[in-house]
Amino acid sequence: MKLIALPAFSDNYIWLLHNNHHALVVDPGDSAPVLAWLAQHPDIELDLILVTHHHADHTGGLPELVARTGAQVAGPALEKMPVSVRGFQQGDTLNWQGLTLQVLDVPGHTLGHIAFWLHPADQTPLLFCGDTLFSGGCGRLFEGTPAQMLDSLDRLAALPCDTRICCAHEYTLSNLKFALAVDPLNLDLQNYAQTCLLLREQNQATLPALLSTERAINPFLRSRSPAVSFAVQQRDAQALDDVTCFAALRTWKNEF
Ligand code: ZN
Ligand code: FE
Predict the structure, then answer these.
(1) Cα→Cα distances 132→109, 113, 148, Å
(2) Which of 34, 135, 191, 222 makes a 20 to 30 Å CA pair with 211?
C-alpha cells in the first residue's frame, strides 16, 4: 500500500492510499486534486472515500468525486453528508482490498466525528483522524465537550505506538509554537520542532506523525503530565482535575 498526501486549499491534506490498482481517499474537501492525481494514474481506480466529519473542507469534493468515479462513501453514521453515505460508528469494521478498517467514535471537534485505523501487511498502522488529533495539537471543540475530546484523544493515544497519524491539516508549526510555550523544557518537543521547521522550509509535509512522538510532545495528549498540568494551573488555578485542566489548556490555545 502506498500513502500519498494530496495538498488541498491552504493547509488541508487529502490522504490517498493505493495498491497500484485500487485507491481510497480520505476527507476530499475538494475534488480537483484527487481528479488530477487519478488522471495521472489511469490504471488506478478510486473505489472508496472515507469521511471523518461533516465540515465542508472535508466533504466539498464528494458530489463530484462520486459522480465521476462511482466510489463508495463511508462516513459518520451520526452526521449529515452532501451525498448518500454508508454510516459507520465505534466498533464497526470495513473491508477494502484485503484490509480491515476499524472505526472509532472520536466526538469533540464535531459530535459524530469518526476515525479509521488500519494495519496494512508488512507496514506500520495508519490512523485517519480528520480534525481530532493534529501533530502537536488537537481540533477545536465546535460541538463536543472537553470531557468528550479528552476521552477521544485518550483512546487514540492508546493505539499501537507505531501508528502513523494522518491528520487532515498541516497545522504542525503553529501547534508546536504553542506546545513550546506550555512545555518549554521538553527536549523531545524541542528536537521535534527543529525537525518540523526544516521539513517546512523544504516545503515538505510534517505528516504523517508517529503516535509515539505525539505521546512525548503533544500537550493535548500530555495534559495530565506534571509539566503541562503545572503550566495550565499557573494560568488557571481552578484547573485541578483532568477534564478542567484539559479544558483550560484548550482555551489557552484558542487565545494564544
Ligand atoms: Zn473540521
Ligand atoms: Fe478541517
Answers:
(1) 6, 8, 11
(2) 34
Q: How far is the CA of 55 from the centre of ligand 2 (A)?
A: 7
| pLDDT one-digit tens code per residue, 105-141 | 999 999 999 999 999 999 999 999 999 999 999 999 9
- What string of DSSP letters covers 115-148? EEEE--TTS--EEEEETSEETTEE---SSS-HHH
Q: How many domains does the chain have?
A: 1
3-state helix, strand, coil in the chain (%, to 5): 35, 25, 40
Q: Is the peptide bond before 76 cis (omega within 30 degrees of 0)?
A: no
Query: Is the CB of residue 72 less than 8 Å from the CB of residue 86?
Result: yes
**Can you read off the three cell numbers belonging to residue 151?**
476521552
Distance from the alpha carbon of residue 12 to the mean position of ligand 1, in angstroms: 10
pTM of structure: 0.98
- Residue 247 lies in domain: 2-255
| Span from the CA of 76 to the centroid of ligand 2 (angstroms) | 15
Phi, psi of 252 (to 5 degrees): -55, -45
Give me the amino acid identity at 58: H
Q: How far is CA 138 from CA 52, 90, 198, 218, 245, in A?
A: 15, 20, 22, 9, 15
Report in angstroms the alpha-carbon separations of 213 from 29, 40, 134, 192, 250.
28, 34, 12, 8, 20
CATH at 105: 3.60.15.10
